[in-house]
């Protein structure tokens, strides 16, 4: 079991009571504090009154489905999110990631896999926080109209805040800290996700696309985040 000083709070959002109960048992056994919601509307109510650290979200639910919930949450929060869904095609997973999820688990699943994915996400966040504490630059990173705040882990364009998930921030920090340097997909994945790269290009492409939608005036003709064909990605220096 994980030895945690502060209990992480996880919100389980699924209209199937059996799934919520099963995950509640396993996550509680690993030291997590859990909350339950049957749909997106109930989840929003809980988020308003509790400091939740991670959402486990089913996609197909009544009243407000998982996609709409995540869309609403991402307008104001970079909270960790894992989708759980019986929709398991590559396009379903890509759509979920594009919507703002940090991970995607196909149903049916082994509850121990869910626990492992949750633990892995928290480890990545904690590892990166420690790196920032040790190597935080004295000033924010500023390139062109963009500012990446190393103190608040926030992204701004022309002084206006932009929504930025934890993984998007990590990718931007890696690239903006090294303008002009080309990073391969494998380098980005292994640094940001903290796992060996097994050749799954889709997840990197999805995140690069999401970042471009936020920072570029014309995502199809990016001026900041460039693709270097056959090599990887580079954040352009600005005059």
From TrEMBL:
Which sections of the sequence are annotated for DNA binding?
138-237
Top-level taxon: Bacteria
Keyword Thylakoid on entry:
no
**CDD domains reported for this sequence:** trans_reg_C
GO function terms (MF aspect): DNA binding
Q: Where is the Response regulatory domain?
A: 9-122
Compartments in which it is found? Cytoplasm
Question: What are the record keywords, sorted?
Answer: DNA-binding, Phosphoprotein, Transcription, Transcription regulation, Two-component regulatory system
Q: Name one Pfam family in it.
A: Trans_reg_C
The residue range of the signal peptide is: none
**Is DNA-binding set as a keyword in this record?**
yes
Q: Which stretches make up the OmpR/PhoB-type domain?
A: 138-237
PTM annotation (4-aspartylphosphate): residues: 58
Main localization of the protein described in the UniProt heading: cytoplasm
Q: Which PANTHER family would you find in this protein's record?
A: REGULATOR OF RPOS, RESPONSE REGULATOR SAER
| Protein known as | DNA-binding response OmpR family regulator
Species lineage? Bacteria, Bacillati, Bacillota, Bacilli, Bacillales
């Amino acid at each position: 079991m994980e030895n945690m000083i502060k209990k992480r709070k996880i919100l389980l959002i699924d209209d199937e009571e059996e799934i919520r109960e099963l995950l509640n048992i396993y996550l509680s056994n690993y030291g997590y504090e859990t909350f339950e919601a049957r749909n997106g509307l109930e989840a929003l109510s809980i988020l308003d009154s509790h400091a939740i650290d991670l959402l486990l979200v089913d996609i197909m639910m009544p009243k407000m489905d998982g996609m709409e919930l995540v869309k609403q949450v991402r307008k104001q929060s970079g909270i960790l999110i894992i989708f759980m869904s019986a929709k398991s095609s590559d396009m379903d997973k890509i759509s979920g990631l594009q919507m703002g999820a940090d991970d995607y688990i196909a149903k049916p699943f082994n509850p121990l896999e869910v626990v492992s994915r949750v633990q892995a996400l928290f480890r990545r966040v904690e590892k990166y926080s420690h790196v920032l504490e040790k190597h935080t630059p004295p000033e924010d990173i500023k390139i062109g109209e963009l500012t990446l705040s190393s103190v608040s882990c926030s992204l701004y364009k022309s002084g206006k805040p932009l929504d930025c998930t934890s993984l998007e921030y990590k990718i931007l920090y890696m690239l903006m800290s090294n303008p002009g340097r080309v990073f391969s997909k494998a380098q980005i994945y292994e640094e940001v996700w903290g796992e060996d790269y097994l050749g799954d290009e889709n997840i990197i492409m999805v995140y690069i696309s999401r970042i471009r939608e936020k920072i570029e005036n014309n995502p199809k003709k990016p001026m900041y985040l460039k693709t270097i064909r056959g090599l990887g990605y580079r954040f352009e220096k600005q005059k």
